[in-house]
Sequence to fold (231 residues):
Amino acid sequence: MDGWGGRSLRVAAFFDIDGTLVSVNTAPLYARYMRRHGRARRRDLIRTAYYLLQYRLNMLDIERAFERASELIRGQDEAEIKLFCEQWYREIVRDYLVPHMLERVEEHRRAGHALALLSSSTNYLAEPLGRDLHVDHLLVTRLEVADGRFTGRAVMPVCYGRGKVHWAKTFAGENDVDLASSFFYTDSVTDLPVLELVGHPRVVNPDRLLRREARRRGWEIVGEGERGGAL
Fold:
């Protein structure tokens, strides 16, 4: 397909992480891992559960949530946190990768599509996952760092809801991607703005609200009646 000035536009395949490439939400996994290593208090686990409930009800104030989370690591060394997250990913998260979704990633790679993770997760989860999947483009939430230490702020907009639309459009503009021909895989109704943005919305292990919306709109629910091989 041709874009402005005769440039050939690419197809992209965007993948959410939690509940999509990973079978669970990773926030409780991380909170419990931190607790096990003496880095979190019991009330931090309760707060994580509260935010997760708000997320599932599509009521989460993501900027407030990240502000509270960032306060916990303000002033800490980024390299040390990065190493801790790498260890967490290897020991815990890797066991939750979804085999049939990893196959989807490979199908898109064989089709020559640009591959990107598009998630509200931070780069400290996305980087080891991206290496495992050989996905270089990470459109994720990033925390502000100055002189190697966290400032307690996130780079705005946070990659969530309309923020995901911003980063997907930015990526498309910088990489000659045609969003109308592109794919997005997700499990959450909070990603409805991006599902509406792409030409090929794909719903994976959907929450109740997204399942209802997908059926109303006739969107593919990956895994339901699937015979395999088709993008």
Notes: The chain is about 45% helix and 15% strand. The chain has a mean pLDDT of 86.
